[in-house]
Amino acid sequence: MLADTGLQRTSRLWSTLKEVCSLLRIPDDASYGQHDTLFQHVQFKAGQRIHTIGQPFDMLYVVNSGFLKTVAIDVFGNEQVLSFPMKGDLFGVDGIHGKRYESEAVALSNCDVILLPFKKFTSIGKVHPELETAIYSVMSRELIREQAMVSMLGSLSAEARVARFLVNLSERFAEMGYSGRQFNLRMTRHEIGSYLGLTLETVSRTLSAFNEIGLITVDQRAIELKDFSALRTLRRLPPSRGRAKQLAANALAASPEGQVTAA
Amino acid sequence: MLADTGLQRTSRLWSTLKEVCSLLRIPDDASYGQHDTLFQHVQFKAGQRIHTIGQPFDMLYVVNSGFLKTVAIDVFGNEQVLSFPMKGDLFGVDGIHGKRYESEAVALSNCDVILLPFKKFTSIGKVHPELETAIYSVMSRELIREQAMVSMLGSLSAEARVARFLVNLSERFAEMGYSGRQFNLRMTRHEIGSYLGLTLETVSRTLSAFNEIGLITVDQRAIELKDFSALRTLRRLPPSRGRAKQLAANALAASPEGQVTAA
DNA sequence: CGGGAGTTTGAGGCAGCTCAAGCACCGTGG
DNA sequence: CCACGGTGCTTGAGCTGCCTCAAACTCCCG
């Protein structure tokens, strides 16, 4: 089953339905307490795969701690990062339809992941109508997330994408009880670029540019957000000194022999 | 069956569960026949809105005939086309999570749409376990579709996106029993561009380029696919349009009547 | 201390965008 | 019937944001 994809020794930790729901930010229901079903935790080390493309689907997964990425591989063999699941996120949903996972999930750090055997989970849903609705709700949430990604990739500039990425990360960290101002990236520039539809160089340059104009400070993986609201609303960077010079040079080059513009 | 793909004026007013499932391409189940619940059809004229952003959610929708678009509107008021639902497609799913629709759905042609009151629909799911699984499956399918979009927007060139768009459309038309070779686009260049993360000019130019090198013929909304497999595997057009023309000319020069000089 | 993976930065090129102009199509009203 | 206006489509020309290629630097780990 999971053995070949790097299953670590099974932890002795188990979670109740109530705990799982709380993790997933699902509205609680008193009746869940009655259920004595326990869900198993599994530990993964950085780099290990939780599931791979084409592997038969039988589980959903919820992140209890740690950081992961999910990756699609297109027809031409290119990897594309689809999401960075972290505490409270559900993944594996894309396996439901075709009975096989359509993406792969990789641990970016040591992780603690809760297994939700799909059949078992949905059968509990029949006993607890609230849970069933909640499952639909979580899947809907995932869909909305993907729609937001599509929207972002379809219309935002590189700077705006990176800015939103930082803001989203910050909010996630804050939700998890960490600082939303200072944090360490868990992924490489390459992975961020893949996620945002940019090259790693563009990501690096954009972060450096944000750093230069005081929106953030960045040192390798360490990030500090300095101007949250500017990041939030950023659409396009103001002309840099370099670009300003360039524009000024162009303007000067044009004016001497050019016509005088009427006021 | 519902195979009457004809005009809306004679369309049926109600469908059985069995018919809805068949439309959705959900594995059938004999027990559905027992259910006497009927689902209402509603007709929309081109341009009419089925639901708008922020409107309270209570229904899912299935397209019985006609063509629609779903649109997100981002923070800055920009429209972004998210999908082009057509016969057999489900939409409205993004409303489940927040109890309000996150996107709006607009009819591109006259449409016949089946209403699925969410509460009623899921409560039937409790009686028919197969149906419940099927609902999960359809939602999972939608998620996979969005993932594919993200993947496309993140990594493919303009030409590849347009080519895939045509191929996907073609396959959908074929599934619906129409010709997959010749069809009319139901959406504007602007809408296609928004969907693919391109400008309308780029869409237009790309279609013209495909036309010039013989992959398709295009005249306004009328499309004919000439080289399906080339469209399928197309990654990037030869370097520039100029050179593309050149190459096309060279290729044609090899065949008898192929003497073509660059314009 | 050496090697590999990740990051930064520069220089230059090109795909796709912007701006602009003209054409095609279609419904409406004279 | 045609004139007319509005919407959508095509095509051109120029620009630029992001990519590509390349080199050097940092950090980590054995």
From TrEMBL, chains A, B:
Keywords: DNA-binding, Transcription, Transcription regulation. PROSITE patterns: CNMP_BINDING_3, HTH_CRP_1, HTH_CRP_2. Residues 44-142 form the Cyclic nucleotide-binding domain. One of its GO terms (cellular component) is cytosol. Residues 156-229 form the HTH crp-type domain. CDD domains: CAP_ED, HTH_CRP. One of its GO terms (molecular function) is DNA binding. The keyword Ligase does not apply. The keyword Transcription regulation applies. This is Transcriptional regulator. It comes from Noviherbaspirillum autotrophicum.
